[in-house]
Every structure is written in C-alpha cells, then in structure tokens.
Design brief:
The structure is a homodimer. Chain A is mostly helical. Chain A contains 14 helices and 14 strands. Chain A has a domain of 218 residues: Glycosyltransferase, CATH 1.50.10. In chain A, the strands form six sheets. A three-stranded antiparallel β-sheet of chain A has the order 3-4-5. In chain A, strands 12-13-14 form a three-stranded antiparallel β-sheet. In chain A, strand 4 and strand 5 form a beta hairpin. At the A-B interface, strand 4 and strand 5 of A face strand 4 and strand 5 of B.
Chain lengths: 412, 412
C-alpha cells in the first residue's frame, strides 16, 4: 500500500536526519570541550577563567560563581555519561573547581550566601540578592559527589539545597532584598525552573533524594505552569504570587528561550511522573507557542525578549539572537520528538540546529559565538564572558548526542 | 588680499552654518517640548509618565526618580531662560513634579535616601545604592527655587546636596553598598561629573552658593581629569582612588558620549575659572580624542561602549548608537567652538547634528528615537523609557539654541 510505503519513507528520512545530526553534534561536542580544556583552566587557584576572546585568549580574570559551578557540573556530567570523556584531566579540573568554590564562594562563612563574582584568587567582588549562585554551587557539588563518591560534596549539596528552599519557600530575608511598599509581589519563572532542575539533578540515580525532593518538584512544576497566561496563549516571565498577570512591562515580559528551557525541564518531569497529558500540554504551551511567536520571521533566530502585547521591549538587546535560547530550543524539540514521536518537532529541531550551526558556531577557533545582531551577524566576538561559560553549548550538544543515540537505536 | 578675502568667505560660511542650525534647533525644540507636555503629565498624582511609545502612548506607568527630577529641571530651565516657554502650563507641571518628589522620593523619611523607581502614586519600587536619584532631586529643587523663589525648594536642594557630598567625600556607608574584600576601590567618572554639574547648577546666578561650592568644583574637576590615562591617549570610565588604571574590563571600559559630556562640563568650569590652558586641554582630551576613537568609521554615529585595548566589550549594546551621546557631542563641539573659535569644532558639531537629525529625529510624532542599531536603524521604537525622558534632547536643543544665538550675534 502506498500509505505504508509513504510512512516507511518518512521513517527513513527521519532516520537520515537523526544520523546526520548525531555525527555532527558528536564532533562539535569534542571541539567545544577542547576549547574549554585548552583555554579556561586556572592551574594556580583552581576554577575557571571564562572571559575568553574569539581565539580563547583571557581578556579578564574575574571568576563568575554561576560559571564556576556550571563548568564543574558540565565536566562531571561528561565524565560520568560519556566513555570518551572519562579523562583524568576533566575530573581533576572539576575537582579543582569544586575546591575553589568550597574555599571561596561563600561571602562570609559559615553563612551560606555566595558571591556572584570573585577575584581570580577567590576574594568576593559582587553579591547578588538572588539564589542563583547558590543553585549552581549546589549543582556542582552534587555532580562531584556523583562522580567521586566523596560525601563532603554530597553534604555541601544538600545543605545548600535546604538553605535555598528555605529562602524560596519560607523566608527570603537572608537574601538581603529591601522590603518596599511599591514592589509588586512578583514571581519570576527562573526560580521554580532552577529548583526543578536541581530536583532532577539531586534525584538522578538517587532514590533517597528523589523521594526527599518529590513534593518540591511538584511544587516547582505547578509554579512554572502558572506562567501560562492569557487563556493559554502566552508564557509570561513574571506573574503575581497567586498566578495572575502583573501590570506594565514586568507583566508583559517574555523570553522565548526561557520558555523553551522550562519546556524541557517540564518534559523531563512529565516523563518521571509518567504523565502523557502534561507532556502534550507542555509541547503545545512551552515549545510550539513560544517558538511560533519568538522566531524572527524576517531573519530567523529567536528574539531575546518580547512584549506579550507586541509592544517594543525596553531592553536594548531585545532583538538580538543569543546562543543559549537556541541551545535550549534544540534540546526541547529533540526531547519533545523523542517523547511524543511527532515528526513536526524533529523538523523544528533541525531548523533551529541549522541556524545555530550556521550562525553561532566558529569552525576556526572552536566554541560558539554568543551574541548576534538581529540579522544574525556576530555582534560580540567573545566566546566567554560574565554570563557565557562552559555550559549551554556543551550541555546542549551532550544531551542531543545522547537523545540522538537513543533515537537512532530505536529506529534501527 | 586673497588671504583676507578667503578668511572673510570662511567667516560667511560659518555664519551660514550657525544661522541654518539656529533655525533648525529652535523649531525642533518646540516640537520636542510639545511631545512631552502633550503626553507625559500626570494630572492625578503630579510628576511625569515617561514610558512613552513612538506616538506618545503610555506603555508603563512606573515613575523613575532620575527622570522626574530631570523633567522638573528642564521645564524650569526653559521657563527661566526662554521668553516663549514662559508658560504657566510648564511652571505648573514643574511644581507638581517637584511636589511629587517632595512627597514620595525619599524611601524612609526623614532619611535622605531616594528611590530609583516609584509606582505612579509614589510608593517605592526599587532603590539603587548610588547617589544619582538624589542628584537629580537636588537639580530639580534648585531649579524650582530659582524660578519660584520659594525657599522650601532651596532648603531641600542644599540639604540634599550636603548629604550627597557627605556620601561621596566622607562616608558612603549610608548608600548601603556591602564592603567586600575583592571589590576594587574604583572611582567612576560619573560621580565627579554629576557633582560638577550640580555645582554649576547651584552656583548659577547665586554668588553665595557659588562660593560655598567652589572648592567642591575644583575637587570634581581634578577627579575627572584623573580619568585621562595612558599618557593622555584615553579617557577611561573607571580608575583607582589614586588615579591609576584598573585591571580588566572595568579598567579598560570607555564611553565616548560620557567623555564628551564631561568635556562640556569641564569647558564650563574652565570658563568660570578663566583658564584657557585647561580649555585647550579639555578640547583635545575630552572632545577630539573620544570623538576620533568613538565615531564609527563604517556607519557613522558614536559607539556606546568601547574597550581601550580595542577588545570586544562584554556589554551586549556596545555597538548601538544611543541618542544621548550625540546630544552631548553637539553641546560639547558647539561650546568648544564658541570658547575657542576653532572652526574644526563647528564642522564636528555639524557632522554630529546632521547624523542626529537624520537618524534619531522623528518628524512624524515628535521627540527622538533613543536606540539605533550599529547601522543606524531604529532598534527600539520607544520615545521614553526607564532611562530616557524629557532631558537630553531638549537640554541639547536649548543649550545649542542659546549658544547659536550668541554666536550669530557675535558674527554680525
């Protein structure tokens, strides 16, 4: 029957796409990891220099705690999950990064609050009144525990995690934010997203912690889902405490890449729960809708910020194309395809991956450029900086390589 | 003699340029002021709504204290210095803005610290740990005093000024910045610049205050001059307390528009002092050099940020063209020409003014766009926002109109 033949041809085409991208992603991951191992290690103090020019040269030696924690996590993940990255060099650098964090991240030990920026030798330069430095610290410590079995790291991870949960769910006063009469009680989607990813990290291959944080995971998922607003037509970055839209720019603010990232966090959650209804909802609301409204019809690429009423955002960089939303979109669409089998999602993965490899990738010096103008030309030639380290690109490539491997095997 | 004839022809050409721009600037000022009086007044609470779209529509009703203070100052300045702006509507709006600030700017009265953002009805939303809200508050109060003669405003201005000077020169602890072991003791050029402009404002037509703040003015000028670094080849935004270059991106950071603004503050200071040597130095270091290195050779316009080593800045918006550096450059070059008579500076005024009128001006709806991409296309369609209000454009036009008037008279 021609229908059967058509379906088989479609499946063969899908397999071709999967195989092509598996090879491409695998070799790209090697080059990206090589860029960071070659250029970013600090043999003197431990940790990582992430302010790197297009050729890997260090242009500033400040150390950003988010990026320290993320690189430790990334190296541990590669070491643990990929045969070819089981290299002592990676593990040693991850441990040196973890020890640097243990020694220097806290601003005033034994207080748990961590710095945002440190000098190269570990003195605090800047503190943010948020939970994110502490979250990436936790992510690093849990990954080190999983790869070394050293219980010091595990204790650090769970103690910091408990502190973060206390700040978020019980009492934020330790973060040092002033209480002002006019500040709206806004909930940023970043907070439950970050916590949900920590729940997944800590519970990975650990039944005890998975159980311990199960209720927290449910709470995070519910909080994230509250950001679907306007009768299901938009994901908004900030909502009120009771899940209503906030007035003004704050309420209308959208970040398509962030919605897509939340999407794959929720897809993982739906898988853990075995909840196909949630999966379908997430694909619709957090993958397809943000992509459809966030993809630039003129030049391609995802806008960085948008306004839900289509007004002009006030952020100067709103129409730039940043690397990380495209990394998140690649993960989200491939995961959506893997979980649902919907070939439209594979086509979207391919569309985003083609754009990313064409525009962000630097075949000459390795790693990806991070910041393009609206038209897709490189606007900043840096490979690393205050917010770009060894994380989004290799995490995307590693996760895509794993998913593509599974999909190719299943197709065969 | 042909030399004499040539010189006369040159002078006639200069006069043509001056007359042409005087007419243009005058009519543009009318349109810009009309945009703000039509769209930004808040009759209910006083003060100004500055988040305005391209057509003047309000897209957010948050009130930014910098912009409240600046608009009060601007209206008072226009009322006081221009016959055609001696309109009760302007004065009433300035007074209502001043009363709004008196009532709501302080976060916890009688403490002097002011908010950065307020709700429309005046409740504090956000506080910055800097002096600038308080500086624009002072500027507004002094301008109101000068135009109304109401001593309440004068007392407010001088009390806040004394508080600011205390924070800057004696004890910054009241600003609430944490003391961290790794934070470099950096001095931002913005602080002495801001104070020098307040010294000029408070001392304008006031012998007593001019005398009281004379030493402060000298101190500010010296502090600003410390930012000329690298054997006089670069103005750096941040230097150490003892006037040395700081390491890393912070030390190499440049802002050509800010250097040009500092330039005309210093030219005014040199005029007050009657110091032609300083005038020549300032024209060279703060006008010509920042312009030569900061003007985009490919697309025209001043870059927003640069790195003194020519590396890529880490700010995403570094290569955008913002309205205010062009406003500052117009003032600086016209003032430099007025003070020195050097026709090269008039040519530079014309070059910048042509770019600004072509690219930023909106002949359809009034006011100027604020944010262009590198190529000079409008990237944000807003006319006002968190950092753009009724200030840089009308201040530039008003000052240029006054200077062009003087120059035309002198030529005649």
């Amino acid at each position: 029957m021609s229908g059967g033949l058509g379906a088989q041809q479609d499946r063969e085409k899908e397999l071709e796409v999967l195989q092509f991208w598996k090879v491409r992603v695998e070799s790209e991951l090697d080059q990206v990891v090589a860029f960071w191992t070659k250029n970013s290690h600090d043999p003197e103090h431990g940790g990582f220099l992430t302010c790197l020019g297009h050729d890997g040269e260090v242009y500033d030696d400040l150390k950003y705690v988010w990026l320290q924690g993320r690189q430790v996590w990334m190296y541990c993940h590669l070491y643990r999950k990929f045969e070819r990255f089981r290299q002592p060099e990676l593990l040693d650098a991850a441990k040196a990064g973890g020890e640097f964090l243990l020694r220097c991240a806290r601003v005033a030990p034994p207080e748990q609050k961590c710095a945002f920026t440190l000098t190269r030798d570990g003195r605090p330069v800047k503190v943010q009144r948020t939970i994110f430095s502490e979250c990436f610290y936790t992510m690093a410590m849990d990954a080190l525990w999983k790869v070394t079995g050293d219980t010091r790291y595990q204790r650090e991870a769970t103690e910091m995690m408990d502190q973060i949960v206390h700040w978020v769910r019980e009492d934020p006063s330790g973060l040092g934010r002033p209480q002002l009469a006019g500040t709206p009680a806004a909930e940023s989607m970043a907070v439950p997203m970050m916590l949900l990813s920590l729940v997944a990290q800590l519970g990975d291959e650990d039944e005890v912690l998975a159980g311990r944080y199960a209720e927290l995971g449910d709470w995070c998922a519910q909080k994230i889902l509250q950001h679907v607003q306007r009768d299901g037509r938009a994901v908004l970055e900030n909502v009120s405490e009771d899940g209503q839209e906030l007035p003004g720019c704050l309420g209308r603010h959208q970040n398509p890449g962030h919605a897509l990232e939340a999407g794959w966090f929720l897809l993982q959650y739906a898988s853990r729960k075995g909840d196909p209804e949630l999966q379908a909802y997430v694909i619709e609301k957090f993958l397809l809708q943000p992509f459809n409204s966030g993809w630039d019809p003129n030049y391609g690429g995802l806008f960085y910020f948008q306004d839900a009423d289509g007004l002009c955002p006030t952020q100067l960089e709103w129409n730039m194309k940043l690397w990380w939303p495209h990394c998140e979109a690649m993960i989200a669409f491939l995961m959506g395809y893997k979980d649902s089998g919907n070939p439209a999602l594979l086509r979207l993965f391919k569309k985003v991956a083609k754009y990313a490899f064409l525009r962000f990738r630097d075949p000459k010096q390795g790693e990806w450029f991070g910041y393009l103008n609206r038209e897709g030309q490189v606007a900043l030639t840096i490979k690393g900086g205050p917010f770009k380290g060894c994380f989004h690109v290799p995490r995307c490539l590693a996760m895509c390589e794993e998913m593509l491997g599974t999909l190719v095997s299943n197709h065969a």
